[in-house]
Amino acid sequence: MSFNIALSGIQAINEQLEAVSNNIANSSTYGFKSSRANFAAMYAGDQATGVQVGSLTQNIGVNGSVETTGRALDAAIDGRGFFVSRETTGALSYSRVGIFAADNAGNLIDAAGRKVQGYGPAINGNLGVMGDINIPTGQIAASASTNVNYTGNLSADWKAPATAGGFKSSDPTTYNMVKQSVLFDSLGSQHTVSQYFVRQAGSNNVVVHYGFDGAPPAAGASSTLAFDGKGQLTSAPKTGDLTLDTANGADDIVFAIDYTGTTMFAGEATATNNSTNGYASGTYIGVELAADGSVVARYSNEQKQTVGTIALATFGNEGALTATSETSWQANATSGLALYGTPGVGLSGKLNTGALEGSNVDITSELVGLMTSQRNYQANSKVITTENQMMQSLMQAL
User: Fold this and answer.
1) At how many degrees (to 10) do helices 2-25 and 363-397 cross?
2) For residues 342 and 128, what is the distance between their CA atoms, to the nearest angstrom?
3) Residues of 336-370 as b/e, b for ≥16 C-beta within 10 angstroms?
4) Contacts of residue 61, Cβ cutoff 8 Å, sequence gap at least 6
5) Please, what are the averages of pLDDT over each run of 10 residues along the chain (398 residues)?
6) Burial level of 144, CB count in 10 A (0-12/13-18/19+)?
C-alpha cells in the first residue's frame, strides 16, 4: 500500500512540476496568468490511498506589470476586463494581450489574427452597435470651409488713413493691416481670403474689407468691428455669410468669420488665432488607440477620425473561464455571461496605450515551489526505495 501511495505522490508532483515549469517558461509572455496545482487526498472508503492534483487554477485576477512599448496599437488594461476577439468559427475569445494591427481588408485584428470587437462610431453621442472594427484605409473626401476664427489685437495706436481716394487694396497707405486666411472648397482646393483692416477717424471702429484669391474686394464685401473705451469688441463678433466664387468646378464657399475675443489695445497689432474648419482630401497613413478605447485613423491631411471604440468584457466569476491557450479564454456557464462596455466605464479598467501587460508570474515564488517539489519528490522516491529493500529482505528471509 505504501508503495502505491508514494507512487501517487510522484505522479502528482510531476503534474505540479509541469505547472511550475510552464509558469517559468511564460514569465516573459504578455498577458500570461500563472497557474497553480491544487493537491487533494484520495480515499477508498475511510482508507487513504494517496494524493492527486485535484484542480489546476489560473491566477487571472492579479494583473501583471505594465511594460511600455511606445507602439500606437498596443494597450494594457489597468484593472478588470478582457479584450474581445471573434474567432473564424464565430466564437468570442477573451484576452489581456492588447497587441493590435490592421489587416489588408481594414479590419482591426489581435496578435492571433482574430477580429477585434468594438462599437461603431458615435452618432448623436450614442455608440454604434458592437461588432468588427473596420478602418477606412482609402482616401477621405475634402470638407469645405464654413467658418474662419480670427482672434487678435487691433492696435489702438493706429491712425485713420488720410487718403482722398478711399480704400484701395493695391495701395497699402489706405489700410492699417492685411491678414490672409486659407479656405478649402468642396474639392479640397485652397483659396485665400484677405482681410484689410481700416481704422475709422473719430471712433474706435475698424472696417474690414474682404478680397478673395488676390482679387480686389467687391463692393459691400466688408464688415465693421466696433470697440468700446476699454478696447472690448461691442459689435456682433461674427460676420454674416460671405461667398467665395471658386470658379474651378467646386461649389461656392459660403463662410463666416468669427472675431470673438479680438481687442483694441495700444501697442503692436497681433494675431493669436487664424484658423479654418475645412480641409483637403487625404489618404490613410495609420491608426492609433486613445486612452478611452477610441480607434483613431490618421490621414495625410492631418485629420483624424474616430472609427470605433474597443469593447472590454467583464465576468462575475472570471476565475472560472475556460482557457483555450496560455493567454486566451472563453466563457462558460460557471463564469457567467460577459458584460460588455468601454474602457474606464463601469467595472472595466482604463487603458494604458503604448504599453502591454506583462506576465503575473512571480519567479521567486516559482523557484521556491520548484525546490519544495524536488524535496517532496525525493521523499516519495525514498519511500519506494525503502519498501523495495524491505521486500527484498523479506524474500531472502523466506
Assistant:
1) 160
2) 12
3) eebebbbbbeeebbbbbbbbbbbbbbeeeebeebe
4) 318, 319
5) 67 79 88 84 75 77 91 94 94 95 91 94 82 89 95 96 85 94 94 96 94 91 94 94 90 96 96 94 91 92 91 92 91 93 91 94 84 76 73 71
6) buried
Which residues face 150 on adjacent strands? 274
Distances (CA, A) of 48 to 8, 40, 107, 279: 11, 11, 57, 80
Query: How far is Cα 368 from Cα 390, in angstroms, rounded to an integer?
Result: 33
Cβ pair 183, 192 in contact under 8 A: yes
Q: In the chain, which segments carry CATH 2.60.98.20?
A: 147-276
Q: Are strands 100-102 and 282-289 parallel, antiparallel or unpaired?
A: unpaired
What is the number of H-type helices and E-type strands within the chain? Answer: 2, 28
Give the residue from 175, 181, 178, 174 showing the smallest Cα distance to 213.
Answer: 181
Q: CATH code for 147-276?
A: 2.60.98.20
Instruction: Kindly report the pTM of this predicted structure.
Output: 0.72
Look at residue 20 and give its three-state secondary structure: helix
Place of cell 524474500: 395
Q: Collapse the DSSP code of 11 into the 3-class scheme (helix H, G, I; strand E, B; otherwise coil) and give the result.
A: helix
Phi, psi dihedral angles at 15 (to 5 degrees): -65, -40
State phi, psi for 18 to the nearest 5 degrees: -65, -40
Q: How far apart are CA 258 and CA 276, in angstroms?
A: 10
Three cell numbers at 105? Answer: 481588408
